[in-house]
Fold this sequence. Notes:
Blueprint (H helix, E strand, L loop, with lengths): L2 H15 L2 H5 L7 H6 L10 E5 L3 H12 L3 E5 L11 E2 L9 E2 L5 E2 L3 H9 L4 E3 L6 E6 L2 E5 L1 H12 L10 E4 L5 H10 L3 E2 L4 E6 L4 E7 L2 E7 L1 E4 L3 H4 L11 H9 L6 E7 L3 H4 L2 E6 L5 E3 L10 E7 L3 H6 L3 H13 L5 H4 E8 L18 H5 L5 E3 L11 H16 L3
Parallel strand pairs: 1-2, 1-14, 2-10, 7-16, 14-20
Antiparallel strand pairs: 3-4, 5-9, 6-9, 7-8, 11-12, 12-13, 15-18, 15-19, 16-17, 17-18
Helix pairs in contact: 4-7, 4-15
Amino acid sequence: MSNKKNKTRGLTRRKFLLSSSLAAAGVSLRPDKAFANALIGPSGSPKRVLILGAGLSGMVAGYELSQLGHDVTILEARMRPGGRVHTLREPFSDGLYAEAGAARIPDNHDLTLKYIKLFDLPLEPMYPSRLQAVRLDGAQRRLVGPEGFTEVLGQSFGSELGGNPSRWSKIKGGNDLFPRAFAQRLADKIHYGAPVVRIEQDANSARAVFLHNSSPETLSADHILCAMPFSVLRRVELPLTNFSERKRDIIQKLPYDAVTRVYLQAKKRSWEEKGLSGFAFTNEGVEVWQPTWSQPGSRGILMTYARPGQAERIASLKEGDRIGSTLNQLADIFPGLRENFEGGTSKVWMEDEWSRGAWSFVGPRDFVQANKAEGRIHFAGEHLSPFFSWMQGALQSGLRAVKEINEAA
Length: 409
């Protein structure tokens, strides 16, 4: 796919979905502060709630339902919380880290910032204010400040990624500290290594069958919250009755976007000696970041962020070829990288067993039906929010489910 097509897809998809089409579906984009303040009223009788998935939507739902006095249990297939909020710390040296999933936090995502403040997590700028980024436009190579980098992002993928670079931040120490903060407060309510294989319900209860040490076990609850991507839920056996065919169809057919990231570790940040920040935007519409610009030490990491079009091409390569081709690409942009290269790794979200994609959105036509509870079974996730692909979307969707379950008869 050409860079022009990538740009068109990004602009069309987001602007279309977040404007008139959502309004036509009756979806409100009211300010998040008002949404959060009006969200949760007094609790009814305490309920047993089983949450499937310890991504951000499941974690915020578990946290708030617990605060309301409900009995919560969370089943997570992975051995960690966070889902697609995932910070890579291996195989890097000297305590360096880079984001595999959610990375940027804009200053207008009030729900995200609210919980970050609640958990006393420190923020730092996403982009360095010094040194220059590289913009490639055909054969032309331009050196720009950080504002030039966010400008091309806004032009390529929609205005939500543009604007003043100072409006973007990240969690100091890694964004995985965010889901870890939820997990610390939920403690023994979370069961890791517990993939769900079947969901059942009747008039009196809902049940999930999951694997524990490869053996099936069953937990019952008053309500179940499916807080996993539909790309994973479609592999779970769903109830034969009291579950609409349209919902099954949405779950089975919802497409997920591909994202591939490749990471190169260098023993020396040689590009900084040449006045380069380590950020760039390529002819193919691939972002290049230096996530270690604010991390201590002499070593550094350069990483690429490829969206649909380029992501699939890179994913089709073997691991060594992904790293080798990325090294060849970035060595032409950043002086000294090849000489200082020490090793690399990659993250392909379509290959992730418990994600099978980076993000999705059910769209305005299916929005209401996709969010609707099926009997005692409820649904949450960034794919069910107008803020899809953001931590904000996962949080908003999780809180919507909290209100729904809390107010259920």
